[in-house]
Design brief:
This protein is an alpha+beta fold. Helix content is 58%, strand content 16%. The strands form 3 sheets. A 5-stranded antiparallel beta sheet has the order 2-1-5-4-3, with helices on both faces. The protein has a 5-stranded mixed beta sheet with strand order 7-9-10-12-11. Strands 6-8 form a two-stranded antiparallel ribbon. β9 and β10 form a beta hairpin. It is elongated.
């Protein structure tokens, strides 16, 4: 009984030991962090300044049977780390280092008593790992909340820009200016052309011409003839009869007759945005200097509206890009930190798992003895041991996946033949598919394509996608693999292209509510024991490291799924 009581007091004794030796263990912890060589001085200073508070919170969080206290300590660790500017990956590495320091102190304290040391280590590891997991969760929740606040601030700024530009759309504002110019200057017809930056017009808004006449005229002008003169010269132009000007190209069929003409550039801060055109002066043969001055004033208002609209569009693009960058950065930080935690837990599990595997192997050899096989009570032993071995193999497979997830590396880029890589990847799973009566249909590229990529990482990506597609098919079915080169525009160095690789299946499909979660680490819709939820996050990380995108579509349960990977082509 005395021995049992002594063991029941062990958790409290561990916490008391870590508190009593706190200053010594804290200094050992900081020395280990300093000697790692991977910590910048400024960040290390933040850790050193907070080390006492972090150490105290860590030890307090180990209090036995007090889950609310553990959660509160984890929150305190996360808040202090953020306040001190300690990034998540450094915090996790530092806490893992502290865990190692504590373990070594347990070796010194209990090493002489093997049974008591094993019990102490088991109690400590369970409490420390729970505290680590809660701290990681809390620091990412805090960072996500901070990122959301920044996005909300930018969204407010975008809305303010919209209000400052106008309550109406840009087209409506320009239409009003064109109508007003006709009325104030006394013109029968008016138009406002916005430049496209390439010598032509992106918008051409008319006034005084009804819809029936517009349809009869046909396509809008593109900035040639007299209109082109203003585009090229960017200065006011008044003509008594535009039809007599040698630069005129003539009016289209069904166009109303026009003679007198006034055109002024739409300019703001030295930049030309377009031109305001007015024709057919009422009550006079031509437009006056006063008419030109009024038209310039109205053109200046149009310039402000166009400039504000351009600024808003630029701000909106920046806002969208910031949202994408923040989401990507946050997800990458999560993946990196989860990888560190996964590596720590995987190594924790490997040792006992290896012991179990060794014991099972020894028992299997002994179970083959004839003396045991002859006894009825031992006849199920070989089957039971085989089942244990199977579960050990399954656990080992999960640990390997965790380590694969944790060991994500930087890609080593080289030129690779994409068609050959796809063929090799398909060949790895073809036999598995044929045995299950599932078909693999490959549509190769129409032209040879070489990608600058990491061949090993891309093959891992393709194998993950093909295996997922096969797993999604129940009974016989089909997996279709296709690749295409798509032109997406021209840059300074010529045309820009992407290669699009798609993997489609006619399997079980994905529920709409799960589509947004498929890239979350550890999320899976597979049966328990058939998936870890790490395959797609690894795929997404590989694609992003190659400057590409990955997307999954499904019309719902029973309707299959389509995965599309887009990667840049370098010719």
């Amino acid at each position: 009984m005395a021995k049992t009581n002594k063991e029941s007091e062990l958790p409290e004794a561990l916490v008391a030991h870590f508190r009593a030796e706190g200053e010594t263990l804290r200094r050992q912890w900081l020395r280990q962090v300093r000697t790692s060589g991977a910590v910048e001085n400024l960040i290390r200073q933040g850790l050193e300044n907070e080390s006492r508070a972090l150490y105290t919170a860590f030890v307090d969080g180990l209090e036995p049977r007090n889950h609310s206290r553990t959660a509160a300590c984890a929150r305190s660790i996360a808040q202090r780390a953020l306040g001190a500017g300690i990034p998540p990956e450094l915090l996790i590495d530092s806490l893992l280092a502290l865990r190692d320091v504590h373990r070594r102190s347990l070796v010194r304290k209990y090493g002489a008593d093997g049974r008591r040391f094993a019990k102490a280590l088991d109690i400590y590891s369970s409490a420390a790992n729970r505290l680590l997991a809660l701290a990681v969760r809390d620091i990412f929740e805090a960072k996500e909340a901070a990122a959301t606040r920044e996005v909300e601030q930018l969204r407010t700024l975008v809305k303010t820009g919209m209000i400052l530009s106008a309550k109406l759309s840009l087209e409506a504002v320009l239409q009003r200016i064109a109508n007003m110019a006709c009325k104030v200057v006394g013109a029968r017809y008016g138009a406002l052309g916005v430049l496209d930056g390439k010598g032509g017009l992106s918008q051409f808004i008319t006034a005084g011409v009804d819809e029936k006449t517009k349809r009869a005229i046909g396509p809008l002008p593109v900035g040639k003839g007299i209109l082109g003169v203003l585009v090229r010269e960017a200065k006011p132009l008044r003509l008594k009869d535009l039809t007599m000007d040698p630069r005129a190209h003539g009016l289209p069929t069904n166009h109303p007759p026009m003679k007198s003409f006034l055109g002024v550039p739409i300019v703001s801060k030295g930049k030309v945005f377009g031109n305001l055109y007015l024709t057919e002066k009422r009550g006079a043969e031509e437009f006056s200097q006063d008419d030109e001055d009024i038209a310039k004033t109205l053109a200046a208002q149009a310039a402000i509206a166009i400039e504000n609209a351009s600024l808003y569009e630029e701000l909106h693009r920046s806002y969208q890009e910031l949202k994408r960058s923040q989401a990507l950065l946050l997800r990458q930080e999560k993946l990196a930190s989860l990888g560190r935690l996964a590596a720590g837990l995987a190594h924790e599990l490997n040792n006992p798992l290896n012991h179990i595997a060794g014991f099972v192997e020894a028992l299997q050899r002994r179970a083959e003895a004839e003396t045991l096989l002859a006894r009825k009570e031992f006849e199920d032993f070989p089957r039971f041991l085989g089942m244990i071995q199977g579960q050990v193999d399954r656990a080992a497979s999960i640990i390997r996946r965790l380590l694969d997830f944790a060991r994500q590396r930087e890609p080593s880029f080289d030129l690779i033949d994409l068609d050959r890589l796809i063929s090799e990847s398909v060949s790895f799973v073809e036999r598995q598919a044929a045995v299950a009566n599932k078909r693999m249909v490959v549509r190769p590229l129409s032209e040879p394509v070489q990608l600058r990529a990491d061949a090993q990482m891309l093959q891992q990506l393709l194998l993950n996608l093909l295996t997922n597609a096969l797993d999604a098919i129940e009974g016989d079915g089909e997996v279709r693999i296709a690749a295409d080169v798509i032109e997406v525009g021209h840059g300074a160095r010529g045309r820009r292209e992407i290669v699009e690789v798609s993997v489609a299946d006619n399997g079980r499909g994905i529920a709409p509510e799960n589509l947004s979660k498929v890239f979350d680490p550890f999320f899976t819709t597979k049966e328990v024991g058939k998936g870890t939820g790490l395959g797609l996050p690894i795929c997404q990380s590989i694609v992003e490291q190659h400057g590409g995108t990955i997307e999954i579509k499904s019309e719902g349960i029973g309707k299959g799924a389509l995965v599309t990977v887009k990667l840049p082509v370098q010719r």
